[in-house]
Amino acid sequence: MDRRDFVRTTAAGMAAAATPATLAAQGTNRSAPLTGAPAVHIPRTRPLLVSDVSSIRYRNGGPENAIERAFRGITEGEDVLDAIVAGVNIPELDPDERGIGYGGLPNADGVVQLDSCLMHGPRRWAGGVAGIEGIRTPSLVAKAVAELTDHHLVVGKGAQEFARSLGFEVEDDLNTPASRELWLEWRRRVDPSHWLDPEERLNGQSLTGEDTDPDNIGRRRRGDARGGIPLRDLEHEARLRRFQEAGLAAGLSMVDDGLIDPNSFWGTTSLEAVNADGDICGVTTTSGLSWKIPGRAGDSPILGAGQYVDNDVGAAGSTGRGEANLYNCATFLIVENMRQGMSPKDAGMAALTRIKDNTVESRLLNERGLPNFDVRFFILNKAGEYAGVAMYGTGESTFAVCDENGAREEALEGLLDGSPRG
Length: 422
Known about the structure:
eight-stranded mixed β-sheet; 15 strands
């Protein structure tokens, strides 16, 4: 047998031995002793990443955005989770990205509180933090929770102390001058009787506001009650509700005036990835809803709400109204729909339909009786199929994709026509 015949015969034998069943057995038992010739590595799918647009629009002055950095890491052999966390660290550290990390828009007290969650499909573990202050990269703290503890979620002061014990730098304030100025503008719009516009005050102008003096309020029919509830408590409840409604209206007015990017107002980055071996991971990081009640945690740090991964099926991440995802376990629902055979697009649309049908409170409905908020999902499955879907897909109309053809934005597909606000 000459050399060329030997090569052809050997290659044919190796290819015949490398059946899908053989490869699957070897992949699920990597500690088994090797026997015979090494198996031929046949990629199961193509490396693919999907995300919201923050992962493609921010570079923090560097050469790569988040989705490019993550794709490069995956194709160079990094663990999928390591690669995508290194990716989202870029917008987390970028002061111009006001929906996550350093310079993220603060809560109602002007304090930046951050949430993050991540899941490692092959290892079947996850980690998360909620309401953490002073750490620019909460995704790295969430990763430490997953790697170093038996827990999933660590919150508030405990999360900060956990990070401090591991050597993370803890800063007094994650506001930038821009985020602080936006918070002051929000305070002026939501409570003009106390927070005055400097220009209007210098010009001798003023706005009429309601009486907010607690002593005056307390004197009003202090002893009266309705249904056994003291009137002062009813007034407090009503005032709190009005403040919350005014806070949301003030924030949306800042979006309308071009002071806040709509993407930053709801503020989240979620990046999902699958490598050539079909290993799937996801990470979500956020500063949460702008001007939120201090201590509020949305869907982003909660498994099955804002982030879910199943290595046998696929992954889904989300941005938009977190409470809608929490009430409907939306990303878990999407992955389960894909497990039952749905495509990524159909699975996402089914979850959006569930959210729409379960939105019944009048305060959450627009004039058409439809949800007055948006929710977006970024979805992929183990075969490398993907989709970006939204309740409306009008305000934020694109999502990010990266594969062998490079990083790009593609159109979100909306369940409903028109706008959430009318």
